[in-house]
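YM 10:42: Transcriptional regulator (GntR/MocR family) with PLP binding site sequence, as discussed on the call
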Amino acid sequence: MDMITISIDHSEQADYIYQQIYQKIKKEILNRNLLPHTQVPSKRELAGKLRVSVNSVNAAYQQLLAEGYLYAIERKGFFVEQLDTFYTEEQTSSFVLPDDLKEPAVDRGEWISFSHMSVNMAHFPLKSWFRCEQKSAARAFHTLGDMAHPQGIYGVRETITRLISLTRGVKCSPEQIVISAGTQMLIHLLTELLPDDALYAMEEPGYRRMYQLLCSAGKEVKTIRLDEKGMSMREINKQNPDVLITTPSHQFPTGVIMPVSRRIQLLNWAAEVADRYIIEDDYDSEFKYDVDSIPALQSLDRFQNVIYMGTFSKSLLPGLRISYMVLPPELLRKYKKRSYDLQTCNTLAQLALQEFIDSGEYQKHIKKMKQMYKEKREKLIHALDEAFGEKITVKGANAGLHFVTEFDTNRPEKEILAHASRLQLEVFGMSRFQLEEGRKKQNTPALIIGFARLKDEDIGEGVKRLQRAVYG
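YM 10:58: structure's back
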C-alpha cells in the first residue's frame, strides 16, 4: 500500500473523506496496482497516515467489503479480492454515449401544434384534483402500504363501472374490470389470455403503436380497409381473423363513427364461431359535438364477445397513466388463474380518480372541456375554410380531439410535412397511420389536425403556416 498515494481534499466542495478513500482504493484494485490477496493497511494505520478519523477509513473499507473488492480474515485484516480482468484493455475515464443514441434538445417555444396526441392542460382543474388526492389519501392512507389488487382497487372499479354504465351503456360488474397504466399494457396482457395462434385484424389506417406491439409479440396481424361505415365486412370475411381491434365511436385516425348497422354485423360475425373476440378501443368517446353520445359497441353485445377498453388519458391527463378494460367472463376466468400479475397503476392516483368521479368533479370537467373543444374546433374549421376555400375537405370533425383534412394540391404529403417542420408547425400525415407496407396510398394529401392544445390566439397563425406548407 506504500506505493499508493491517497490525497484527501478537505474543501467544502469535495466528497466525504470516506468516499475519497473508497474511490482511490477501488481504482487501484481495478487497475491491478493492488494485486489479489494483497493485504491493505489496518484501519488505524491508514487513518494515521492520512490524518483522518478511523471511522472514515472503516466506512470506506466496509463499502469495499460490501461491493466485493475486499475480503476480511478475522484477526488478520482486509485483503484484496480475486477479480477477473475485463476483456477490454482500453481504459476510459468516463462513459460517453454514442451520438446516434443522444436525444436532441428541442425548443418548442415558437412552435404551433396541431398534434392529435395532446390534451388541453391549461384548463385542467388541478386544485380540485389535489383536493381529491388529499381527501382520498387521508381516508385510505393505510392502503398505500399494501400491494393493490392485481385488477386495481375494488372501490375504484366500482366507480368506473357506474361511470361507463351511465355514460357509455357498458354492462359489467367491478369484478370484470382490470385497471392498468396504459392501453399498451392491457393489450400485452390480452395477448397472453387469447390463444397463442390467434389471428388479429386491425383497421387500416389505424393505431400504429398497437400494430407494432402485436407484431413484436410475434402475433400475426392483418389489416382491414375501411368503407363508409367503418371496418369492411367484405375484408373481414376474406381475412377471417379471430380477434378484431376497432375504434367504433371515433375511428382512429379518420374519425368515422360506426353506425348501428355495421355494429350489429360485427357482433353477429363474432357470435358465429367460438373464441372470436372484438377489442373495442373507446379512446376519446367523451367528446361528441353535433350528436349525442353514442353507446359503446359492448352495450349491444349479447354473447360476451366484446372486450371493452377505456382510458382517462384524453379526458384528464395522459401523464396519469390510467386505463382499464372489461373482460368477458371466459377471459376473466383465465385471468384469475394467473398468480404473478401485479397492479401497475399508482394506488394514490386510483384513489384520487375515484374521489374525482364520485364527487361530481369529473363530469363537471368533461362538460366544460366538451364546450371548450367544440368552440375551438368551430373556430379552427372556420379559419381553414376562409384560408383554403374549396381546396380543403374536412372529415371526422363531429367527435374527438382531431379531424382529417384533405387538400387539392400537387404537393405530396412528405413535402408538405417537411415545409411544416421548417415553419415550426407540428402536424402529422395520414401515411403515419398506414399499417401495412406496400398498401396503396391515397393520392390526395391528408393531414391529421389536432386542436386540443391549440391556443385561440394561435389559430390564425397556425392556419397561415399550414397554407404555406401546403402551397408554398
